[in-house]
Amino acid sequence: MSQVVMYTTAICPYCVNAKRLLDAKGVAVKEMRVDREPHLRQKMMADSGRHTVPQIWIGNRHVGGFTDLWALDKRGELDALLAAE
């Protein structure tokens, strides 16, 4: 299973929804809290080109935010992406 990395904050409802979706699929998420470690936001922005959370990577692929993750799931593409090594 691919590693999932998600940049989050404590008060982000989209982060909560993304974690719930991945949890329902039995996926462990490596959470990077940009509100606790501000230097991580700079890395997230440099790597993704975006400044909002969540920002989600599955393996080496930048998926985007929650709505991008949700759209992948609705198209039936998320499970295969998560299963890839």
From TrEMBL:
Keywords: Cytoplasm, Disulfide bond, Electron transport, Redox-active center, Transport. It comes from the Bacteria. It holds the Pfam family Glutaredoxin. InterPro entries: GLR_AS, Glutaredoxin, Glutaredoxin_subgr, GRX_bact, Thioredoxin-like_sf. Residues 4-63 form the Glutaredoxin domain. The keyword Transmembrane does not apply. Has a glutathione-disulfide oxidoreductase activity in the presence of NADPH and glutathione reductase. Reduces low molecular weight disulfides and proteins. Belongs to the glutaredoxin family. This is Glutaredoxin. It comes from Gilvimarinus gilvus.
